Amino acid sequence: xxxxxxxxxxxxxxxxxxxxxxxxxxxxxxxxxxxxxxxxxxxxxxxxxxxxxxxxxxxxxxxxxxxxxxxxxxxxxxxxxxxxxxxxxxxxxx
Amino acid sequence: xxxxxxxxxxxxxxxxxxxxxxxxxxxxxxxxxxxxxxxxxxxxxxxxxxxxxxxxxxxxxxxxxxxxxxxxxxxxxxxxxxxxxxxxxxxxxxxxxxxxxxxxxxxxxxxxxxxxxxxxxxxxxxxxxxxxxxxxxxxxxxxxxxxxxxxxxxxxxxxxxxxxxxxxxxxxxxxxxxxxxxxxxxxxxxxxxxxxxxxxxxxxxxxxxxxxxxxxxxxxxxxxxxxxxxxxxxxxxxxxxxxxxxxxxxxxxxxxxxxxxxxxxxxxxxxxxx
Lengths: 94, 274
Known about the structure:
- The complex is a heterodimer of chains A (94) and B (274).
- Chain A has three helices and three strands.
- Chain A has helices spanning 39-46, 54-64, 69-85, and strands spanning 16-20, 23-28, 33-36.
- In chain A, helix 1 (39-46) packs across helix 3 (69-85).
- The N and C termini of chain A lie close together (7 Å).
- Chain B is α+β, with helices and mostly antiparallel strands.
- Helix content of chain B is 25%, strand content 32%.
- Chain B has helices spanning 23-30, 71-89, 118-125, 217-226, 239-248, 259-272, and strands spanning 3-8, 11-17, 40-48, 56-59, 66-68, 93-103, 106-111, 131-134, 137-141, 146-147, 154-156, 171-173, 176-179, 193-203, 211-214, 251-256.
- A five-stranded mixed beta sheet of chain B has the order 1-2-3-4-5, with helices on one face. Chain B has a five-stranded mixed barrel with strand order 6-7-14-10-9.
- In chain B, strand 2 (11-17), helix 1 (23-30) and strand 3 form a beta-alpha-beta unit.
- The A-B interface holds A 16, 18, 20-21, 23-25, 27, 29, 34-36 and B 216-219, 221-222, 225-226, 232, 236-237, 239-240, 243, 247.
């Protein structure tokens, strides 16, 4: 998981990714795993582009979902934690 | 030596079986695939092992022979060998680990992990007017979304409940019951059938009744992909094909319970989608 608030998480470049009806499917060939992200995780995933901090992603989530900032921060933190646990982030950038 | 000259998904497969004990099982399993003698693309030979051990040997030059402890184990090896090899020969097909039945002239896929009950459910549905295409493999032609028949004998590991009692003509092995096409309670479908629906079968021992629910495209794509056997042979690592299939055909989760109720739930879902 990104270790500080200024970290700008980035998706691994070697993953196959498709968006299906607002949800993201991620194929990790190196681990022979395929993941389905729900709507909020998909929102976070699309912003893991090395340009956004977790706080910026949470702020963007406020506009997209009718939730308050604490809920958004929790959702972003949880999603980033999951992405990291599953090895989906570029660790050199995290 | 008794020989089967098969047409498996349009490719010639020859099986020589020199062991009289294994021959009825091999013949029963693959006899429905006898076909026009195409050039032999795959050639297997079965013989009794030399020496004192009662082993069977499956030869498949130029690869190393495989030893099996009995006819059931040998058939399992042969099944796996043919399934893998035929996917290489027909890499144009998107092959899913699935039973396939026919309903109203369309193919219905029952997708489940091994031991998930798809073969037993397929056996039960054959008593309700469904036709038979396949027990284990669903070869999908992507341009048309037709499913090709793969009429290997249906195999169930344990005796089904009395309401769908196993035919006395089934062959027994250490793996379970093998039901050749000719003794099934329904006809085998011999031509490709348009894919009509996909059911992702889930076992829930605590479920009081079977239930069917439509499943969203993303979840369906992941489930289908996870059961695809040769996805990497296809563009986009096979993800594009999975997404296309589930977008163009209805997909359901099926929580199975008692077999009659589960069969009724499948039929109701299919007829409701007409």
